[in-house]
Amino acid sequence: MPQHSHSYSGVTTYNQGHAHHYGGVTCKAPSGVPHCHKMNGITTFNNGHEHKYVTETGPAINLPNGCHYHCFRTRVELANGHIHYISGYTSAD
Question: Positive or negative CA dihedral for 40, 38, 27, 18?
């Protein structure tokens, strides 16, 4: 079965006087069937630290042209005494 992935990027919530950027490519998942993608990465190094994140997208959201995208929302790991949240949408495939 063919597989695919999506790109994503964004900025974390603003906490403790700063935010971080993040971005990457989801793990591959089967095409043409209901699916989600695993996501993991590390935010940019800001204010003397960075945050790791591990999550999974929501299910595929179909578009009229036959492509689809996914939503995601998660908390990054605790670092430097605080957390941030990331949320957004993947690219369409």
Answer: negative
CA–CA gap between residue 22 and residue 13 (Å, rounded) = 11
C-alpha–C-alpha distance, residues 35 and 76, integer Å: 23
- What is the bridge-based pairing of β-strands 21-25 and 3-4? unpaired
What is the reported pLDDT for 93?
Answer: 84
Cβ distance 60 to 35 under 8 Å?
A: yes
Q: What is the DSSP letter of 44?
A: -
Distance CA 82, CA 70 (A): 27
Q: Are 41 and 25 a contacting pair, CB within 8 Å?
A: no
Which residue in this structure is represented by tokens 């036959």? Answer: 66
Kindly report, residue by residue over 13-61, the tens digit of the pLDDT: 999 999 999 999 999 999 989 999 999 999 999 999 999 999 999 999 9
